[in-house]
Amino acid sequence: METVEKIKQQISENPILLYMKGSPKLPSCGFSAQASQALMSCGEAFAYVDILQNPDIRAELPNYADWPTFPQLWVEGELVGGCDIILEMFQKGELQELIKEVAERHPAPSEE
Ligand SMILES: N[C@@H](CCC(=O)N[C@@H](CS)C(=O)NCC(=O)O)C(=O)O
Ligand code: FES
């Protein structure tokens, strides 16, 4: 599959998706660590893609997203932003609100 097709599929299939360096449990960069921490604190499941394991996505996503860096948080098919925006929203309580709403709209199969 073309990288851009892979990206589109990931974004459309995962209502809460974090592109990051490393994993939420073992982040490989402070920015990705802070972003995934904030997201985990919202208490809902989310998907992630480790771009260090996917160099094609690392190379292609900044063009597709028109956003140069990682992490990138995508919610319901739209780019929310990177670490700065995620932390700012978290401090205002907006991230928690958004994530809760989205999780309610997309219940996980295992919870049904
Ligand atoms: N201010 C940025 C910080 C993120 C950042 O600067 N990321 C850099 C270093 S980890 C990056 O992704 N560079 C491109 C790359 O490594 O592919 C944010 O809010 O997300
Ligand atoms: S990997 Fe060096 S700042 Fe993110």
From TrEMBL:
Gene Ontology CC annotation, any one: cytoplasm
Database matches in InterPro entries: Glutaredoxin, GRX_PICOT-like, Monothiol_GRX, Monothiol_GRX-rel, Thioredoxin-like_sf
Binding of glutathione, residues: 21, 58, 70, 83-84
Principal localisation: cytoplasm
Domain Glutaredoxin: 16-80
Subcellular location: Cytoplasm
An annotated Gene Ontology molecular function: metal ion binding
One Pfam family linked to the record: Glutaredoxin
Extent of the signal sequence: none
Annotated [2Fe-2S] cluster binding sites: 29
Keyword Cell division set for record: no
Keywords: 2Fe-2S, Cytoplasm, Iron, Iron-sulfur, Metal-binding, Redox-active center
Family statement: Belongs to the glutaredoxin family. Monothiol subfamily.
Subunit field text: Homodimer.
Role according to the record: Monothiol glutaredoxin involved in the biogenesis of iron-sulfur clusters.
Protein name, per record: Glutaredoxin
Source organism (scientific name): Pseudidiomarina insulisalsae
Gene that encodes it: grxD
